[in-house]
User: Which sequence fits this backbone?
């Protein structure tokens, strides 16, 4: 930009050109510092959010495991019940067989024999039901290890993230403190009329959205709006110009070429 200003020194003095370049450099420096700070603050903010999400994932996985385990307990109780039914059935057959051996009359003997035959016929289906229930329970139990694994993995991920964040946090904070000190120094270099507008925009837009560089010669780097030629000329004449669309204070890049067309 200094080159362009030198070429036009019939309208601008060298001293003025240097002032423009120094303001430009300061705004650029502030913008870079604000971007870095926004990135660091973003990392500080996202850390706990990420941990909270991962904590929720542990709880979800644990709840799923609990549900599977309680369903398994239910199936186990049902299959035990069915096994007991088979055992009780066998005991009643045995009892009747003993009674049969001790039967006093032919009538008793025949009645018992009929009962035993009926009991033997129904035993098969009871046994099948018990085996089916055991089989179902065993198959369902296969869901437990993957669900346990899911809880373990979620816990491990949380621990790794937490450890990393706790280790990174003081480093990020120290870096942010350094950049903040540099930012204060840079901000102090701004001429009063720039500093007032800049301070107001930091309040309303947030630090890294207080400034935008002119991109591709004539577009706002913040919102891509085409900047009027008048405004560009004013920026080059070291006037504080704010984008009419996104309200960022504009500055031009170092290798800026003013294109009047
Ligand atoms: Zn804009």
Assistant:
């Amino acid at each position: 930009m200094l080159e362009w200003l030198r070429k036009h020194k019939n309208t601008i003095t060298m001293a003025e050109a240097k002032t423009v370049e120094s303001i430009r450099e300061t705004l650029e420096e502030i913008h870079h510092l604000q971007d870095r700070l926004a990135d660091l603050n973003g990392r500080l903010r996202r850390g706990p959010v990420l941990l909270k999400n991962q904590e929720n994932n542990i709880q979800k996985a644990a709840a799923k495991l609990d549900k599977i385990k309680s369903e398994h307990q239910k199936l186990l109780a049902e299959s035990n019940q069915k096994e007991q039914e088979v055992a009780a059935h066998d005991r009643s057959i045995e009892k009747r067989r003993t009674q049969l051996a001790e039967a006093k009359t032919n009538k008793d003997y025949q009645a018992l024999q009929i009962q035993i035959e009926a009991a033997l016929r129904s035993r098969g289906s009871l046994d099948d039901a018990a085996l089916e229930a055991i089989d179902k329970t065993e198959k369902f139990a296969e869901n437990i290890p993957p669900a346990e694994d899911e809880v373990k993995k979620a816990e491990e991920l949380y621990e790794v993230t937490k450890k990393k964040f706790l280790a990174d946090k003081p480093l990020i904070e120290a870096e942010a403190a350094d950049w903040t000190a540099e930012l204060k120094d840079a901000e102090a270099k701004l001429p009063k009329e720039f500093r007032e507008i800049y301070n107001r925009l930091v309040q309303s837009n947030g630090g890294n959205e207080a400034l935008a560089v002119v991109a591709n010669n004539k577009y706002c780097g913040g919102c891509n709006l085409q900047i009027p030629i008048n405004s560009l000329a004013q920026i080059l004449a070291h006037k504080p110009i704010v984008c009419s669309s996104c309200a960022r204070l504009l500055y031009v890049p170092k290798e800026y070429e003013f294109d009047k067309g």
